[in-house]
Amino acid sequence: MDMAFLIETIVKIVVILLVFSALAGFGTYFERKVLAFMQRRLGPMHVGPYGLLQIAADGIKLFTKEDIVPQNVVAPIFKIAPVITAATAFMAAAAIPFMPSFTMFGYEVHPIVADINIGILYILGVMGAGLYGPLLGGLASANKWSLISTARAASIFISYEVITGLALLAPLMMVGSLSLIDFNTYQAGGFGDWIVWSQPVAFVLFVIAGFAETGRTPFHLVANDHEIIDGFGTEYSGMRWGLFFIGEYANMFFISFVIAIIFLGGYGDGSGLGALALLAKVSFIFFFFLWTRAAWPDIRPDQLMWLCWKVLMPIAVINIVITGIVMMF
Amino acid sequence: MFEAVAFYLFAFLTVVMFSITVFTKQALYALTSLAAGMIFISAFYFILGADFLGAVQIIVYTGAVMALYAFAMMFFDTTRDVKEHTRSPQIVFLLGGMVALLIVIIFAVPIVSENITANYPVAEGVGNSQAVGIVLFTKYLVPFEVAAVMLLVAMVAGIVLAGKKMDHSLTLMEDEEIEFAEKSNEKAVS
């Protein structure tokens, strides 16, 4: 543990924090523009060219808005809940390799904060812990909409964690490692080696569970505007609400990276082209999140549970059994 | 140096969190500090190099405590203090303190007498999760399978207990149907 390692790690952490906080802002802009395009509207147009400065306007609004802690809430928990959402999203990023390692000023840089050998397990665990944000926020605010949203968050968390784990087991058995870098090297052979071709079922299940874990439409039940206002976020204002937002969008980006690395070949052989390809895949998955929001209505909570336990879980288990049989013979 | 700093930091945080869990009267504080304490414990596994157990600690206990939250939501108004009915706090304190002391002694004695040896030391060149798997599926295979069967039994029992009205869905029923069902239930009870 020398000084150079320490400085390198801190620089990486700061870069990831800055880049993805900014990307979360751009994410809201892309979301509005994509939704507007699909619904034959213009979206934000007035602030700056093509509404690009809308992000800055939103930021100024969120930062300067009065921070209200309403009566009857459990203040310490109420205040800490948004921090949990944002912090866990970025903590999960510690084990994601964002790019192949490259040489800069004669110094080899590995764009991953901590290459622990249980990477994917750590990422999913910490991302799962992120659901404590909506849970605590909803429980602490003295509001019935928030409470309903909390109940939904708890049920989604407990059920969809199962799907994520079971869906991942089959590719894990093939690769034989939990490190995302090993996943990448396994698929380094090119397009034909992608795990999505050998594990299409696991891929679909993992993407569906990803929608549930990030709370995106069609599983946007924790903050379903048209029935429970903003759910856990109803009582929040200003930057506290903004932290929830940053956490949600950062999570979307990170889960896109995880999907791209596990199933879609990651950065391939590690060349510059491979890095660009990874960025393209991540952008497409992010776009897919928005596309789904424009195309699908939200489903009911009981349908969500039905889908999880009666459809997805049996399929995931059958997939694991078949993978095991194929690998054995 | 880093390990020592991390150890004392997380030891302090864990003790503080679990103290809050025990001493507070607010269900929400108790549960939140319990969850935080459980996650801080995983830091010790990471310091010791047992990455796999650390990540499993986070995954298992966030889920487990989440289930407790669900219960708290059903039984309490979590924004109010819980009224505790303890007849004599002295006896509770004495019994709790005794048990805690006993556990500390049980764990401290082998350390003091320096009788600890690793029965299954980590094999060289084997990853963390593989090492856990090797011991689990050779030495501890029978307890592992028994635990699996017990969980299955618990699951079947839970479904039987909760599944009496699973063919009705309140969401899909009309209001009149729900009222009718409730009335027929009352008749059946009386």
Could you explain how this protein is built, in words?
The complex is a heterodimer of chains A (329) and B (190). Chain A has one domain (68-328). The longest helix of chain A has 36 residues, at 3-38. In chain A, α5 runs antiparallel to α6 (144-175), α6 packs parallel to α13 and α11 packs across α12 (272-295). Chain A is built from 13 helices and 2 strands. Chain A is mainly α and 329 residues long. In chain A, strands 1-2 form a two-stranded antiparallel ribbon. Chain A is globular, with a radius of gyration of 20 Å. By secondary structure, chain B is mostly helical. Chain B has a domain at 140-190. Chain B is 73% helix and 0% strand. Chain B has helices at 2-23, 27-47, 51-75, 89-112, 128-137, 141-162, 175-189. In chain B, α1 packs antiparallel against α2 (27-47) and α2 packs antiparallel against α3. Chain B is extended and about 70 Å long. The mean pLDDT of chain B is 81. At the A-B interface, α3, α4, α5 and α6 of A face α2 and α3 of B.
Q: Which stretches of chain B are low in confidence, meaning pLDDT under 50 for 5 or more residues running?
A: none
From the helix content, strand content and strand pairing of chain A, which structural class follows? mainly alpha
Into which percentage range does the β-strand content of chain A fall? under 5%
Terminal CA distance of chain B: 70 Å
Number of spatially distinct domains of chain A: 1
Task: Give the SSE order of chain B as H and E letters.
Answer: HHHHHHH
Oligomer: heterodimer
Mean pLDDT of chain B, as a whole number?
81
Largest sheet of chain A: 2 strands, antiparallel
- Spans of chain A of 5+ residues with little confidence (pLDDT < 50)? none
